[in-house]
From TrEMBL:
It is a peripheral membrane protein. The keyword Protease does not apply. Residues 1-26, 331-378 are annotated as: Disordered. Residues 128-302 form the CRAL-TRIO domain. It comes from Pyrus ussuriensis x Pyrus communis. Keywords: Coiled coil, Golgi apparatus, Protein transport, Transport. Belongs to the SFH family. One of its GO terms (biological process) is protein transport. One of its GO terms (cellular component) is plasma membrane. This is Phosphatidylinositol/phosphatidylcholine transfer protein SFH3-like. It is found in: Cell membrane; Golgi apparatus membrane.
Length: 520
Protein backbone atom coordinates (compact mmCIF):
# COMPACT_ATOMS: atom_id res chain seq x y z
CA UNK A 1 0.00 0.00 0.00
CA UNK A 2 1.45 3.39 -1.05
CA UNK A 3 1.04 6.69 0.71
CA UNK A 4 -1.42 7.84 -1.94
CA UNK A 5 -3.72 4.98 -1.07
CA UNK A 6 -4.16 6.11 2.52
CA UNK A 7 -7.59 7.52 3.29
CA UNK A 8 -7.08 10.98 4.86
CA UNK A 9 -10.33 10.53 6.81
CA UNK A 10 -9.11 7.28 8.40
CA UNK A 11 -9.01 7.59 12.22
CA UNK A 12 -7.93 5.18 14.94
CA UNK A 13 -10.76 3.28 16.63
CA UNK A 14 -11.41 5.10 19.89
CA UNK A 15 -12.87 1.98 21.53
CA UNK A 16 -9.91 -0.31 20.73
CA UNK A 17 -8.20 0.41 24.06
CA UNK A 18 -11.34 -0.33 26.10
CA UNK A 19 -12.00 -3.50 24.11
CA UNK A 20 -8.44 -4.65 24.66
CA UNK A 21 -8.68 -4.04 28.42
CA UNK A 22 -11.99 -5.92 28.59
CA UNK A 23 -10.56 -8.81 26.60
CA UNK A 24 -7.40 -8.92 28.70
CA UNK A 25 -9.48 -8.93 31.91
CA UNK A 26 -11.58 -11.85 30.74
CA UNK A 27 -8.47 -13.76 29.70
CA UNK A 28 -6.86 -13.16 33.09
CA UNK A 29 -9.98 -14.43 34.82
CA UNK A 30 -10.00 -17.56 32.69
CA UNK A 31 -6.27 -18.04 33.30
CA UNK A 32 -6.75 -17.83 37.05
CA UNK A 33 -9.54 -20.40 36.86
CA UNK A 34 -7.30 -22.78 34.90
CA UNK A 35 -4.38 -22.26 37.27
CA UNK A 36 -6.53 -22.78 40.37
CA UNK A 37 -8.12 -25.90 38.97
CA UNK A 38 -4.68 -27.34 38.20
CA UNK A 39 -3.31 -26.40 41.60
CA UNK A 40 -6.17 -27.78 43.65
CA UNK A 41 -6.12 -31.18 41.96
CA UNK A 42 -8.53 -32.75 39.52
CA UNK A 43 -11.01 -33.81 42.15
CA UNK A 44 -11.54 -30.41 43.68
CA UNK A 45 -11.51 -28.43 40.43
CA UNK A 46 -13.85 -30.67 38.51
CA UNK A 47 -16.23 -31.77 41.22
CA UNK A 48 -16.85 -29.14 43.87
CA UNK A 49 -19.46 -26.88 42.30
CA UNK A 50 -20.57 -25.09 45.47
CA UNK A 51 -18.66 -22.49 47.52
CA UNK A 52 -16.04 -24.22 49.68
CA UNK A 53 -13.32 -22.74 51.86
CA UNK A 54 -9.79 -24.04 51.53
CA UNK A 55 -6.97 -23.45 54.01
CA UNK A 56 -4.02 -24.72 51.97
CA UNK A 57 -1.17 -22.22 52.08
CA UNK A 58 1.26 -21.58 49.24
CA UNK A 59 4.11 -23.60 50.76
CA UNK A 60 1.96 -26.71 51.24
CA UNK A 61 0.46 -26.34 47.78
CA UNK A 62 3.92 -26.17 46.23
CA UNK A 63 4.99 -29.30 48.11
CA UNK A 64 1.83 -31.14 47.04
CA UNK A 65 2.43 -30.24 43.39
CA UNK A 66 6.02 -31.44 43.57
CA UNK A 67 4.93 -34.70 45.22
CA UNK A 68 2.18 -35.15 42.63
CA UNK A 69 4.63 -34.78 39.75
CA UNK A 70 6.94 -37.31 41.39
CA UNK A 71 4.11 -39.84 41.74
CA UNK A 72 2.95 -39.26 38.16
CA UNK A 73 6.46 -39.80 36.82
CA UNK A 74 6.62 -43.17 38.59
CA UNK A 75 3.00 -44.15 37.78
CA UNK A 76 2.00 -44.20 41.46
CA UNK A 77 -1.04 -41.91 41.26
CA UNK A 78 -4.36 -43.59 40.41
CA UNK A 79 -6.97 -41.06 39.34
CA UNK A 80 -9.23 -41.81 42.34
CA UNK A 81 -6.42 -40.77 44.71
CA UNK A 82 -5.34 -37.71 42.70
CA UNK A 83 -6.43 -35.24 45.35
CA UNK A 84 -4.36 -32.41 46.80
CA UNK A 85 -5.72 -32.82 50.33
CA UNK A 86 -5.00 -36.56 50.36
CA UNK A 87 -1.45 -35.92 49.16
CA UNK A 88 -0.99 -33.34 51.91
CA UNK A 89 -2.16 -35.75 54.63
CA UNK A 90 0.61 -38.16 53.68
CA UNK A 91 3.17 -35.35 53.35
CA UNK A 92 2.33 -34.07 56.83
CA UNK A 93 2.60 -37.57 58.25
CA UNK A 94 6.20 -37.76 57.00
CA UNK A 95 7.07 -34.11 57.72
CA UNK A 96 7.18 -33.26 53.99
CA UNK A 97 10.08 -35.62 53.30
CA UNK A 98 9.35 -36.58 49.67
CA UNK A 99 11.21 -39.90 49.66
CA UNK A 100 9.68 -41.11 52.92
CA UNK A 101 6.24 -39.93 51.81
CA UNK A 102 6.60 -41.69 48.46
CA UNK A 103 7.47 -44.94 50.24
CA UNK A 104 4.49 -44.54 52.58
CA UNK A 105 2.22 -43.82 49.60
CA UNK A 106 3.52 -46.82 47.65
CA UNK A 107 3.01 -49.11 50.65
CA UNK A 108 -0.54 -47.77 51.04
CA UNK A 109 -1.40 -48.55 47.40
CA UNK A 110 -0.02 -52.05 47.74
CA UNK A 111 -1.95 -52.62 50.99
CA UNK A 112 -5.20 -51.41 49.43
CA UNK A 113 -4.77 -53.80 46.54
CA UNK A 114 -3.89 -56.80 48.72
CA UNK A 115 -6.51 -56.07 51.41
CA UNK A 116 -9.25 -55.21 48.91
CA UNK A 117 -9.96 -51.85 50.53
CA UNK A 118 -11.41 -50.34 47.34
CA UNK A 119 -14.28 -52.86 47.27
CA UNK A 120 -14.55 -53.76 50.96
CA UNK A 121 -17.88 -51.96 51.40
CA UNK A 122 -19.46 -54.21 48.76
CA UNK A 123 -17.49 -57.40 49.45
CA UNK A 124 -17.47 -57.60 53.25
CA UNK A 125 -20.60 -58.29 55.28
CA UNK A 126 -20.37 -57.95 59.06
CA UNK A 127 -23.45 -59.79 60.27
CA UNK A 128 -22.36 -59.76 63.91
CA UNK A 129 -22.30 -55.95 64.09
CA UNK A 130 -25.18 -55.65 66.61
CA UNK A 131 -23.56 -58.09 69.01
CA UNK A 132 -20.15 -56.47 68.58
CA UNK A 133 -21.54 -53.02 69.39
CA UNK A 134 -23.11 -54.50 72.51
CA UNK A 135 -19.68 -55.49 73.82
CA UNK A 136 -17.80 -52.58 72.26
CA UNK A 137 -20.09 -49.46 72.26
CA UNK A 138 -18.91 -47.08 69.52
CA UNK A 139 -20.13 -44.89 66.68
CA UNK A 140 -20.44 -41.39 65.20
CA UNK A 141 -22.78 -38.84 66.73
CA UNK A 142 -23.17 -35.33 65.33
CA UNK A 143 -20.45 -32.83 64.43
CA UNK A 144 -18.29 -30.36 66.35
CA UNK A 145 -18.48 -26.59 65.92
CA UNK A 146 -16.11 -26.75 62.94
CA UNK A 147 -18.25 -29.32 61.15
CA UNK A 148 -16.08 -32.38 61.84
CA UNK A 149 -17.83 -35.67 62.70
CA UNK A 150 -17.69 -36.69 66.37
CA UNK A 151 -16.71 -40.31 67.03
CA UNK A 152 -17.49 -41.86 70.45
CA UNK A 153 -16.20 -45.01 72.15
CA UNK A 154 -17.16 -46.22 75.62
CA UNK A 155 -14.07 -48.21 76.48
CA UNK A 156 -15.17 -48.70 80.07
CA UNK A 157 -18.03 -50.91 78.82
CA UNK A 158 -15.88 -53.08 76.53
CA UNK A 159 -15.90 -56.81 77.30
CA UNK A 160 -12.95 -58.11 75.30
CA UNK A 161 -13.63 -61.77 76.07
CA UNK A 162 -17.23 -61.68 74.83
CA UNK A 163 -16.16 -59.48 71.92
CA UNK A 164 -13.73 -62.16 70.72
CA UNK A 165 -16.50 -64.75 71.14
CA UNK A 166 -18.83 -62.68 68.97
CA UNK A 167 -16.24 -62.17 66.20
CA UNK A 168 -12.57 -62.73 65.40
CA UNK A 169 -9.80 -60.20 65.51
CA UNK A 170 -9.28 -60.39 61.73
CA UNK A 171 -12.96 -59.77 61.05
CA UNK A 172 -13.08 -56.88 63.49
CA UNK A 173 -10.07 -55.23 61.83
CA UNK A 174 -11.78 -55.70 58.44
CA UNK A 175 -14.95 -54.12 59.88
CA UNK A 176 -12.84 -51.22 61.14
CA UNK A 177 -11.38 -50.69 57.63
CA UNK A 178 -14.85 -50.86 56.07
CA UNK A 179 -16.13 -48.15 58.42
CA UNK A 180 -13.08 -45.99 57.68
CA UNK A 181 -13.80 -46.32 53.95
CA UNK A 182 -17.44 -45.39 54.60
CA UNK A 183 -16.27 -42.30 56.48
CA UNK A 184 -14.14 -41.13 53.55
CA UNK A 185 -16.71 -41.99 50.88
CA UNK A 186 -19.84 -40.75 52.63
CA UNK A 187 -19.38 -39.04 55.98
CA UNK A 188 -16.50 -36.65 55.30
CA UNK A 189 -18.04 -35.47 51.98
CA UNK A 190 -21.44 -34.94 53.67
CA UNK A 191 -19.79 -32.91 56.45
CA UNK A 192 -17.89 -30.91 53.81
CA UNK A 193 -21.13 -30.05 52.00
CA UNK A 194 -22.85 -29.08 55.25
CA UNK A 195 -19.92 -26.96 56.50
CA UNK A 196 -19.07 -25.54 53.02
CA UNK A 197 -15.41 -26.32 53.61
CA UNK A 198 -13.28 -29.40 53.29
CA UNK A 199 -13.61 -31.84 56.20
CA UNK A 200 -11.22 -34.80 56.34
CA UNK A 201 -10.60 -35.14 60.08
CA UNK A 202 -12.74 -36.10 63.09
CA UNK A 203 -13.08 -35.31 66.78
CA UNK A 204 -13.02 -38.35 69.07
CA UNK A 205 -14.38 -38.86 72.60
CA UNK A 206 -13.18 -41.89 74.59
CA UNK A 207 -15.08 -42.60 77.81
CA UNK A 208 -12.69 -44.66 79.94
CA UNK A 209 -14.78 -44.81 83.13
CA UNK A 210 -13.90 -48.08 84.85
CA UNK A 211 -10.83 -48.78 82.75
CA UNK A 212 -7.85 -49.89 84.84
CA UNK A 213 -4.67 -51.93 84.79
CA UNK A 214 -6.55 -55.21 84.36
CA UNK A 215 -8.42 -53.95 81.28
CA UNK A 216 -5.47 -54.19 78.92
CA UNK A 217 -5.16 -57.94 78.45
CA UNK A 218 -3.19 -59.63 75.66
CA UNK A 219 -6.08 -59.54 73.14
CA UNK A 220 -6.77 -55.87 73.83
CA UNK A 221 -3.10 -54.96 73.36
CA UNK A 222 -2.89 -56.86 70.09
CA UNK A 223 -6.08 -55.24 68.78
CA UNK A 224 -4.83 -51.74 69.65
CA UNK A 225 -1.54 -52.39 67.87
CA UNK A 226 -3.20 -53.73 64.71
CA UNK A 227 -5.74 -50.90 64.49
CA UNK A 228 -3.04 -48.31 65.13
CA UNK A 229 -0.87 -49.72 62.33
CA UNK A 230 -3.75 -49.79 59.83
CA UNK A 231 -4.80 -46.24 60.66
CA UNK A 232 -1.30 -44.77 60.85
CA UNK A 233 -0.03 -46.39 57.65
CA UNK A 234 -3.07 -45.95 55.41
CA UNK A 235 -5.30 -43.20 56.85
CA UNK A 236 -2.83 -40.66 58.28
CA UNK A 237 -3.73 -37.27 59.72
CA UNK A 238 -7.45 -38.02 60.12
CA UNK A 239 -7.60 -37.24 63.85
CA UNK A 240 -8.07 -33.57 64.64
CA UNK A 241 -8.32 -33.99 68.42
CA UNK A 242 -9.30 -36.57 71.03
CA UNK A 243 -10.79 -36.19 74.49
CA UNK A 244 -10.26 -39.03 76.98
CA UNK A 245 -12.82 -38.44 79.73
CA UNK A 246 -13.50 -40.00 83.17
CA UNK A 247 -9.82 -40.89 83.44
CA UNK A 248 -9.14 -42.21 86.94
CA UNK A 249 -5.84 -43.06 88.60
CA UNK A 250 -5.96 -46.60 87.23
CA UNK A 251 -6.33 -45.40 83.66
CA UNK A 252 -3.61 -42.79 84.01
CA UNK A 253 -1.16 -45.57 84.90
CA UNK A 254 -2.45 -47.60 81.96
CA UNK A 255 -2.18 -44.58 79.65
CA UNK A 256 1.58 -44.50 80.07
CA UNK A 257 1.70 -48.01 78.58
CA UNK A 258 -0.80 -47.32 75.80
CA UNK A 259 1.11 -44.22 74.69
CA UNK A 260 4.08 -46.36 73.74
CA UNK A 261 1.95 -47.95 70.99
CA UNK A 262 0.92 -44.60 69.51
CA UNK A 263 2.68 -42.15 67.24
CA UNK A 264 4.02 -39.11 69.17
CA UNK A 265 2.20 -36.76 66.79
CA UNK A 266 -1.04 -38.56 67.62
CA UNK A 267 -0.54 -38.32 71.37
CA UNK A 268 -0.02 -34.55 71.06
CA UNK A 269 -3.64 -34.25 69.90
CA UNK A 270 -5.02 -36.12 72.93
CA UNK A 271 -6.44 -34.42 76.04
CA UNK A 272 -6.79 -36.63 79.14
CA UNK A 273 -9.57 -35.30 81.39
CA UNK A 274 -11.11 -36.42 84.67
CA UNK A 275 -14.82 -36.37 85.48
CA UNK A 276 -15.12 -32.58 85.14
CA UNK A 277 -15.02 -32.64 81.35
CA UNK A 278 -18.44 -31.25 80.36
CA UNK A 279 -17.46 -27.59 79.98
CA UNK A 280 -14.44 -28.56 77.85
CA UNK A 281 -16.56 -30.64 75.49
CA UNK A 282 -19.16 -27.87 75.18
CA UNK A 283 -16.42 -25.49 74.05
CA UNK A 284 -15.89 -27.73 71.03
CA UNK A 285 -19.34 -29.26 70.44
CA UNK A 286 -22.80 -27.66 70.53
CA UNK A 287 -25.12 -28.99 73.24
CA UNK A 288 -27.60 -30.19 70.60
CA UNK A 289 -24.85 -32.30 69.00
CA UNK A 290 -23.54 -33.74 72.29
CA UNK A 291 -25.27 -36.70 74.02
CA UNK A 292 -27.04 -35.95 77.26
CA UNK A 293 -24.85 -38.43 79.17
CA UNK A 294 -21.82 -36.26 78.24
CA UNK A 295 -23.40 -32.98 79.33
CA UNK A 296 -25.27 -32.12 76.12
CA UNK A 297 -29.00 -32.02 75.36
CA UNK A 298 -29.34 -34.75 72.71
CA UNK A 299 -31.06 -38.04 73.56
CA UNK A 300 -31.92 -39.52 70.11
CA UNK A 301 -34.91 -41.14 71.81
CA UNK A 302 -36.49 -42.02 68.45
CA UNK A 303 -33.32 -43.81 67.31
CA UNK A 304 -32.77 -46.09 70.29
CA UNK A 305 -30.29 -43.77 71.97
CA UNK A 306 -27.32 -41.67 70.88
CA UNK A 307 -24.88 -44.57 70.59
CA UNK A 308 -27.09 -46.31 68.01
CA UNK A 309 -28.39 -43.27 66.11
CA UNK A 310 -25.40 -42.55 63.83
CA UNK A 311 -26.58 -38.93 63.85
CA UNK A 312 -24.95 -36.60 61.33
CA UNK A 313 -25.22 -34.73 57.99
CA UNK A 314 -24.70 -38.02 56.16
CA UNK A 315 -28.33 -38.89 57.04
CA UNK A 316 -29.71 -35.74 55.35
CA UNK A 317 -31.39 -36.74 52.06
CA UNK A 318 -30.55 -33.52 50.24
CA UNK A 319 -26.91 -33.60 51.31
CA UNK A 320 -26.56 -37.24 50.27
CA UNK A 321 -28.02 -36.41 46.84
CA UNK A 322 -25.44 -33.66 46.45
CA UNK A 323 -22.62 -36.00 47.53
CA UNK A 324 -23.77 -38.60 45.01
CA UNK A 325 -23.93 -36.03 42.22
CA UNK A 326 -20.42 -34.89 43.11
CA UNK A 327 -19.17 -38.47 43.02
CA UNK A 328 -20.84 -39.11 39.66
CA UNK A 329 -19.38 -35.90 38.25
CA UNK A 330 -15.94 -36.96 39.45
CA UNK A 331 -16.25 -40.34 37.72
CA UNK A 332 -17.29 -38.80 34.41
CA UNK A 333 -14.59 -36.15 34.57
CA UNK A 334 -11.66 -38.44 35.32
CA UNK A 335 -11.00 -39.26 31.66
CA UNK A 336 -11.02 -35.68 30.49
CA UNK A 337 -9.26 -34.31 33.55
CA UNK A 338 -6.53 -36.86 33.12
CA UNK A 339 -5.41 -34.96 29.99
CA UNK A 340 -5.28 -31.56 31.72
CA UNK A 341 -1.51 -31.46 32.05
CA UNK A 342 -1.02 -32.56 28.42
CA UNK A 343 -3.34 -29.78 27.26
CA UNK A 344 -1.37 -27.28 29.30
CA UNK A 345 1.86 -28.40 27.62
CA UNK A 346 0.24 -28.29 24.17
CA UNK A 347 -0.96 -24.76 24.86
CA UNK A 348 2.56 -23.68 25.78
CA UNK A 349 3.90 -25.10 22.51
CA UNK A 350 1.17 -23.31 20.57
CA UNK A 351 2.07 -20.03 22.27
CA UNK A 352 5.76 -20.53 21.46
CA UNK A 353 4.81 -21.00 17.80
CA UNK A 354 2.57 -17.93 17.93
CA UNK A 355 5.39 -15.86 19.43
CA UNK A 356 7.77 -16.99 16.68
CA UNK A 357 5.25 -16.14 13.94
CA UNK A 358 4.55 -12.72 15.46
CA UNK A 359 8.27 -11.92 15.60
CA UNK A 360 8.65 -12.90 11.94
CA UNK A 361 5.70 -10.74 10.90
CA UNK A 362 6.98 -7.77 12.89
CA UNK A 363 10.42 -8.09 11.26
CA UNK A 364 8.88 -8.25 7.79
CA UNK A 365 6.56 -5.30 8.37
CA UNK A 366 9.18 -2.92 9.79
CA UNK A 367 10.91 -2.13 6.42
CA UNK A 368 7.52 -1.51 4.87
CA UNK A 369 6.64 0.94 7.61
CA UNK A 370 9.93 2.84 7.12
CA UNK A 371 9.35 3.14 3.34
CA UNK A 372 5.77 4.28 3.79
CA UNK A 373 6.79 6.99 6.25
CA UNK A 374 9.12 8.60 3.70
CA UNK A 375 6.25 8.92 1.22
CA UNK A 376 3.44 10.12 3.49
CA UNK A 377 3.21 13.86 4.07
CA UNK A 378 3.27 15.32 7.55
CA UNK A 379 -0.47 16.10 7.38
CA UNK A 380 -1.49 12.47 6.75
CA UNK A 381 -1.94 9.69 9.30
CA UNK A 382 0.47 6.79 9.67
CA UNK A 383 -0.26 3.99 7.15
CA UNK A 384 -2.41 1.04 8.15
CA UNK A 385 0.50 -1.41 7.87
CA UNK A 386 2.53 0.51 10.48
CA UNK A 387 -0.49 0.83 12.78
CA UNK A 388 -1.20 -2.90 12.42
CA UNK A 389 2.43 -3.61 13.28
CA UNK A 390 2.21 -1.50 16.45
CA UNK A 391 -1.12 -3.04 17.46
CA UNK A 392 0.30 -6.53 17.04
CA UNK A 393 3.21 -5.63 19.30
CA UNK A 394 0.88 -4.26 21.96
CA UNK A 395 -1.38 -7.30 21.75
CA UNK A 396 1.59 -9.65 21.75
CA UNK A 397 3.02 -8.09 24.95
CA UNK A 398 -0.33 -8.41 26.74
CA UNK A 399 -0.78 -12.02 25.59
CA UNK A 400 2.78 -12.88 26.64
CA UNK A 401 2.19 -11.50 30.15
CA UNK A 402 -1.12 -13.33 30.41
CA UNK A 403 0.43 -16.64 29.41
CA UNK A 404 3.24 -16.08 31.93
CA UNK A 405 0.60 -15.86 34.66
CA UNK A 406 -1.45 -18.78 33.35
CA UNK A 407 1.52 -21.14 33.04
CA UNK A 408 3.58 -20.00 36.02
CA UNK A 409 4.07 -23.62 37.05
CA UNK A 410 5.67 -24.45 33.67
CA UNK A 411 8.03 -21.46 33.30
CA UNK A 412 11.04 -23.60 34.04
CA UNK A 413 10.37 -25.70 30.94
CA UNK A 414 10.26 -22.75 28.51
CA UNK A 415 13.32 -21.85 26.41
CA UNK A 416 15.63 -19.23 27.89
CA UNK A 417 14.91 -16.74 25.12
CA UNK A 418 11.22 -16.71 26.07
CA UNK A 419 12.01 -15.88 29.68
CA UNK A 420 14.36 -12.98 28.82
CA UNK A 421 12.81 -9.56 28.18
CA UNK A 422 13.63 -8.39 24.65
CA UNK A 423 13.33 -5.22 22.59
CA UNK A 424 11.29 -5.75 19.47
CA UNK A 425 12.16 -4.29 16.02
CA UNK A 426 10.39 -0.98 16.61
CA UNK A 427 12.94 0.94 18.70
CA UNK A 428 12.83 4.28 20.45
CA UNK A 429 14.05 6.13 17.31
CA UNK A 430 10.99 4.81 15.47
CA UNK A 431 8.79 5.88 18.38
CA UNK A 432 10.22 9.39 18.24
CA UNK A 433 9.60 9.49 14.49
CA UNK A 434 6.00 8.36 15.05
CA UNK A 435 5.48 11.08 17.65
CA UNK A 436 6.80 13.70 15.24
CA UNK A 437 4.37 12.49 12.59
CA UNK A 438 1.31 12.76 14.82
CA UNK A 439 1.11 9.23 16.32
CA UNK A 440 1.64 10.12 19.96
CA UNK A 441 -1.11 7.82 21.12
CA UNK A 442 0.49 4.76 19.55
CA UNK A 443 3.84 5.65 21.12
CA UNK A 444 2.22 6.02 24.54
CA UNK A 445 0.58 2.62 24.22
CA UNK A 446 3.88 1.03 23.27
CA UNK A 447 5.67 2.72 26.17
CA UNK A 448 2.89 1.57 28.51
CA UNK A 449 3.47 -2.02 27.39
CA UNK A 450 7.21 -1.67 28.02
CA UNK A 451 6.54 -0.16 31.45
CA UNK A 452 4.23 -3.08 32.19
CA UNK A 453 7.10 -5.43 31.31
CA UNK A 454 9.36 -3.71 33.83
CA UNK A 455 6.67 -3.73 36.53
CA UNK A 456 6.02 -7.45 36.07
CA UNK A 457 9.74 -8.21 36.31
CA UNK A 458 9.96 -6.27 39.58
CA UNK A 459 6.86 -8.01 40.92
CA UNK A 460 8.30 -11.43 40.03
CA UNK A 461 11.58 -10.54 41.74
CA UNK A 462 9.83 -9.44 44.94
CA UNK A 463 7.68 -12.59 44.93
CA UNK A 464 10.78 -14.77 44.74
CA UNK A 465 12.30 -12.89 47.67
CA UNK A 466 9.17 -13.46 49.77
CA UNK A 467 9.19 -17.17 48.90
CA UNK A 468 12.84 -17.42 49.89
CA UNK A 469 12.10 -15.77 53.24
CA UNK A 470 9.19 -18.15 53.82
CA UNK A 471 11.39 -21.15 53.07
CA UNK A 472 14.00 -19.91 55.54
CA UNK A 473 11.38 -19.41 58.25
CA UNK A 474 9.91 -22.85 57.60
CA UNK A 475 13.34 -24.45 57.78
CA UNK A 476 14.02 -22.68 61.08
CA UNK A 477 10.67 -23.86 62.45
CA UNK A 478 11.34 -27.44 61.36
CA UNK A 479 14.77 -27.35 62.96
CA UNK A 480 13.17 -26.16 66.19
CA UNK A 481 10.58 -28.93 66.05
CA UNK A 482 13.30 -31.53 65.50
CA UNK A 483 15.22 -30.15 68.45
CA UNK A 484 12.13 -30.31 70.67
CA UNK A 485 11.46 -33.88 69.58
CA UNK A 486 15.02 -34.80 70.49
CA UNK A 487 14.60 -33.18 73.90
CA UNK A 488 11.33 -35.04 74.47
CA UNK A 489 12.97 -38.34 73.52
CA UNK A 490 15.80 -37.73 75.96
CA UNK A 491 13.34 -36.75 78.70
CA UNK A 492 11.31 -39.90 78.09
CA UNK A 493 14.45 -42.00 78.26
CA UNK A 494 15.43 -40.35 81.55
CA UNK A 495 11.96 -41.01 83.00
CA UNK A 496 12.14 -44.66 81.94
CA UNK A 497 15.51 -45.04 83.63
CA UNK A 498 14.15 -43.40 86.79
CA UNK A 499 11.14 -45.73 86.76
CA UNK A 500 13.38 -48.81 86.43
CA UNK A 501 15.55 -47.62 89.29
CA UNK A 502 12.45 -47.02 91.42
CA UNK A 503 11.19 -50.52 90.69
CA UNK A 504 14.56 -51.99 91.59
CA UNK A 505 14.60 -50.00 94.80
CA UNK A 506 11.08 -51.16 95.74
CA UNK A 507 12.04 -54.76 94.98
CA UNK A 508 15.12 -54.38 97.15
CA UNK A 509 13.07 -52.92 100.02
CA UNK A 510 10.51 -55.73 99.78
CA UNK A 511 13.31 -58.29 99.80
CA UNK A 512 14.87 -56.76 102.93
CA UNK A 513 11.49 -56.67 104.66
CA UNK A 514 10.88 -60.34 103.92
CA UNK A 515 14.37 -61.34 105.07
CA UNK A 516 13.88 -59.29 108.25
CA UNK A 517 10.84 -61.34 109.23
CA UNK A 518 12.97 -64.42 109.62
CA UNK A 519 15.89 -62.86 111.50
CA UNK A 520 14.75 -63.82 115.03
Amino acid sequence: MSGADVDPNLKPDGNSEDERKTKLGSFKKAANMITNSFNKGRRNSKVMSFPMEDDIDAEELKAAQEFRQKLLSEELLPSKHDDTHMLLRFLRARKFDLEKTKQMWSDMLQWRQEYGADTIMEDFEFKEVDEVLKYYPQGHHGVDKDGRPVYIEKLGQVDSNKLMQATTMDRYVRYHVREFERTFICKFPACSVAAKKLIDQSTTILDVQGVGLTSLNKSARELIQRLQKVDGDNYPETLNRMFIINAGSGFRLLWNTVKSFLDPKTTSKINVLGNQYQSKLLEIIEATELPEFFGGSCTCADKGGCMLSDKGPWNDTEIIKMVQSIREAKCTSNTSSGDLEEKQEEKILEEEKKISEDETKVSEEEPKVSKEETKVSEEKLIPEDAMACTNRMDSFCSDAFLEAETHSDHLSSLPEELLTPRMYPMGYDDVDSMVCKGTEREAERLNAALNRLSALEQELSSTKQVETQKEEKLKAALDRVNALEQELTEAKKALEEARHKQEELLASVDKEKKSGLFCW
